[in-house]
Amino acid sequence: MLDALVEFADNDIEKDPVQQSLEALMLTIGNVQYSQLQEAASSNTDAREFISRIRLKMQRCAHHQYLYKHDRTNLAAELFDGVNSTAECPPIGLAYEHFQNVWWKVTRDNGAFVRGKEVGTDILLAPPITLEDITWALKTTSKDMAKGSDQLPLWKLKKSKTHELWAAMNVWLGLRRVPASLKLNRTKLLPKGTVQLDNIKNWHPITIASILIRLFNNILAKRMSKVSQTDARQKGSKPLNGVGQNIAILHHLIRHARTHKRDLYLCLLDVSKAFDSVPHDSAIRALMRKGAPNEFIKLVENQYMRAFTSLSYADKSSLLIKLKRGVKQDDPISSILFNLVLDELFELLGDRFGYSLEGVGKASAMAWC
């Protein structure tokens, strides 16, 4: 790790300090799968080379669906630890073709927008990641956190030297990029219900990154939450009961309209594959609109540059799929990026439309994801 820090400080172009930092960290952790992961990353070959077999367990579809709505962290942990649904997954070839079409589709977001005044450099980038940040990220991460394609478990990181994580993550932060091999993900399919599961559209893809990336992004997300504020009408992925609040507001509006014999028009919109269909251009645009520093945008953009995933079944896995759009589930910054993209809609709506309440204003839209 010292060598990586020296290369980082000296900026020796013959060596890559980002790669050195990861190699030193993996050496310390003693991850035996690392060499296989590196070989697969460099050759871009079949994901079978680095995704291990998953233990078979049985779990009811209804339980999975409940966890998908209420606790995706534990859901991902169950799935990637080997829990298998009673439903048979679609043929892997069919699933590969379908999701390749979903993630390979590039959507350009070229609409005009006003770039916000740059803010947050002193919060997002200037302070180095501290040992306290590392300790906080490790403590606030669930012990059942699912493993990524590198098969690195959380307990190994907790037993490793915190200084090694500190050094590696500061190299990544300083150079505004992460190791290429940590951009390899794996994806498990979750049934949406219990009927028509022969239709590939009735399956949720859960894409999980390396736990190293999620710990790193947990620290970045904490910084982003101090800078990037979203509209109060967005209740998703915030430390509050967003569903309960939205239901209460909706109940009050309906009751008010009935009491005062007023017209009330409602439209419920369920966005299909919301996280999977977010254009990367839109995420970058959202950061620009909120005034994120260019160097921070570069760091976020790098994580989605040449990122791949592989569909993971109980006894096999697919070829790699390049992720040209979408944000990853269970990644701490994904929900923030999604909310920032959606926030532009709320700015456009403003209070020009909606149901008027005297002394309160207009209720035009509510969101939860």
TrEMBL record:
<dbReference type="InterPro" id="IPR000477">
    <property type="entry name" value="RT_dom"/>
</dbReference>
<dbReference type="Pfam" id="PF00078">
    <property type="entry name" value="RVT_1"/>
</dbReference>
<protein>
    <recommendedName>
        <fullName>Reverse transcriptase domain-containing protein</fullName>
    </recommendedName>
</protein>
<feature type="domain" description="Reverse transcriptase">
    <location>
        <begin position="171"/>
        <end position="369"/>
    </location>
</feature>
<dbReference type="InterPro" id="IPR043502">
    <property type="entry name" value="DNA/RNA_pol_sf"/>
</dbReference>
